[in-house]
């Protein structure tokens, strides 16, 4: 019987592919910025579905949209038209940065990046892609080829040819790397998995200018930064960047699997059958995404991320711990670079009722739902302070 934590953990462990390092915690419910485990213990959720839960858990508007649409029509391939899809495409392109007037709908971040790479190749007739060191774009072969982390790449080489990586925020290196075969430059606005590292505005602007000058396309990966996370609906808005292709996913559909590749004017008409997806644009995900966009706008979640994010950064910068090297972020995408490994800190936080993420070996990453309250943020800061203090007393005992 799968009724106890031990039984559930044993069943998963026996039958899962085993590719995830897992925490021995069985999460069975959520509401807003809280989740609870099978024993009924509540946690403040700064994992936030790894960025998929910007609206928090069990948001009533998403629950209603999904329930209603599930009873009407779940699946409808893109060989037909659909009312929910038409409404979503209109709303999404209206909300997107200027010029992104079309979108390909898919089911995940990696798929959105794959679509962007394919569209860049087919539209420029060129093959190469320049990406950034520490960049993360997903784990399918095209997206993995753009991802930098050798641990993810090496077991699967040879990858797709034509990809190279330049240091993030190094405009001179980027200028050197873009040649006549460069189809696209692919960048995050804030590197998420790579350690919560915001781009320099000047770097982004020279990337955009270089692409336009040299006939390459600028692909921005907003899979993690999109839908209000950074305090703007899309992070490119902070810098006035107008990408030619933009990949989104994670929080797009209130936590349901969905992604999209938005397409700008410099990308020509795409050949019929050049790409596709069975589940892409399904009415259920479209209904959830429409409800999500409405909630983000009607409940002021973008402003909330900006205000709460600034508050959280300020509180964290006020912490006095010898283990903190740097605190950085944009909106509610926040990283604390430690002078120690992050895993014991994550465990200490969990024991204090706070779930958080790593971003590499030494960065603690916070991705709370944008609906989180200031009181909960205060509890998170207190838990981080206490966890780091405990590490100090352990270190002095040794
Ligand atoms: C999570 C992420 C991806 C991959 O998304 P999946 O849905 O896991 O395939 C790609 N790019 C960025 C920036 C991400 O944060």
Q: State the end-to-end CA separation.
A: 44 Å
Task: Estimate nothing, just give the exact number of structural domains.
Answer: 2
* Low-confidence residue ranges: none
> What share of residues are in beta strands?
15-25%
Can you give the mean pLDDT?
A: 97
Q: For the largest beta sheet, what order do the strands appear in spatially? A: 4-12-11-10-7-5-6
Distinct ligands, ions and cofactors found in the model: pyridoxal-5'-phosphate
Identify the CATH architecture of the largest domain.
Answer: 3-Layer(aba) Sandwich
What kind of assembly state do the chains in view correspond to? single chain
Question: Would you report the number of β strands?
Answer: 17
Helix % is 25-40%
Structure overview:
The protein has helices spanning 5-15, 48-51, 60-72, 83-95, 109-124, 141-146, 150-153, 171-177, 201-214, 283-298, 301-317, 343-351, 374-397; strands at residues 27-31, 34-37, 42-45, 102-106, 128-132, 163-166, 182-188, 190-191, 197-198, 217-221, 245-248, 259-263, 324-330, 333-338, 354-355, 357-358, 363-366. It is an alpha/beta fold. It has 2 domains: 5-56 and 300-397, Aspartate Aminotransferase, domain 1; 73-298, Aspartate Aminotransferase, domain 2 (3-Layer(aba) Sandwich). The protein has a 7-stranded mixed β-sheet with strand order 4-12-11-10-7-5-6, with helices on both faces. Strands 1-2-3-15 form a 4-stranded mixed β-sheet. It has a 4-stranded antiparallel β-sheet with strand order 13-14-17-16, with helices on one face. A hairpin with a 5-residue loop joins strand 8 (190-191) and strand 9. The model has no long low-confidence stretch (mean pLDDT 97). The site of pyridoxal-5'-phosphate has 14 residues, from helix 5. Pyridoxal-5'-phosphate binds at residues 108-110, 113, 136-138, 188, 192-193, 221, 223-224, 249.
């Amino acid at each position: 019987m799968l009724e106890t934590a031990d039984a559930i953990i044993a069943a998963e462990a026996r039958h899962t592919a085993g590719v995830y390092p897992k925490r021995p915690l069985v999460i069975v419910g959520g509401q807003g910025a809280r989740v609870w485990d099978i024993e009924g213990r509540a946690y403040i959720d700064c994992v936030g579905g790894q960025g998929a839960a910007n609206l928090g858990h069990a948001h009533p508007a998403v629950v209603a949209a999904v329930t209603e649409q599930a009873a009407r029509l779940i699946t409808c391939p893109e060989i037909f038209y659909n009312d929910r899809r038409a409404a979503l495409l209109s709303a999404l392109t209206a909300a997107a940065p200027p010029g992104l007037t079309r979108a390909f709908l898919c089911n995940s971040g990696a798929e959105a990046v794959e679509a962007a790479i394919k569209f860049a190749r087919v539209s420029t007739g060129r093959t190469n892609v320049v990406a950034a060191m520490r960049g993360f774009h997903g784990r399918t072969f095209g997206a993995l080829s753009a991802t930098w982390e050798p641990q993810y790449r090496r077991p699967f080489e040879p990858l797709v040819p034509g990809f190279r990586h330049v240091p993030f925020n190094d405009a001179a290196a980027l200028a050197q790397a873009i040649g006549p075969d460069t189809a696209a430059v692919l960048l995050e606005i804030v590197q998420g998995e790579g350690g919560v590292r915001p781009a320099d505005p000047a770097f982004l602007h020279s990337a955009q200018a270089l692409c336009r000058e040299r006939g390459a396309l600028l692909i921005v990966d907003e899979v993690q930064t999109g839908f209000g996370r950074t305090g703007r609906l899309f992070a490119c808005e902070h810098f006035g960047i107008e990408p030619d292709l933009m990949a989104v996913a994670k929080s797009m559909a209130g936590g349901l699997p969905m992604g999209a590749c938005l397409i700008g004017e410099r990308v020509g008409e795409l050949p019929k059958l050049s790409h596709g997806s069975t589940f892409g644009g399904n009415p259920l995900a479209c209904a959830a995404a429409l409800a999500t966009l409405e909630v983000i706008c009607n409940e002021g979640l973008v402003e909330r991320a900006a205000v709460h994010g600034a508050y959280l950064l300020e509180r964290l910068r006020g912490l006095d711990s010898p283990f903190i090297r740097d605190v950085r972020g944009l909106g509610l995408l926040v990283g604390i670079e430690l002078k120690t490994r992050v895993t014991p800190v994550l465990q200490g936080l969990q024991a204090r009722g706070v779930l958080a993420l790593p971003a590499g070996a030494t960065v603690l990453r916070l991705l709370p739902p944008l609906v989180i309250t200031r009181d909960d943020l205060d509890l998170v800061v207190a838990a981080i302070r206490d966890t780091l203090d405990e590490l100090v007393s352990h270190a002095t005992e040794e």
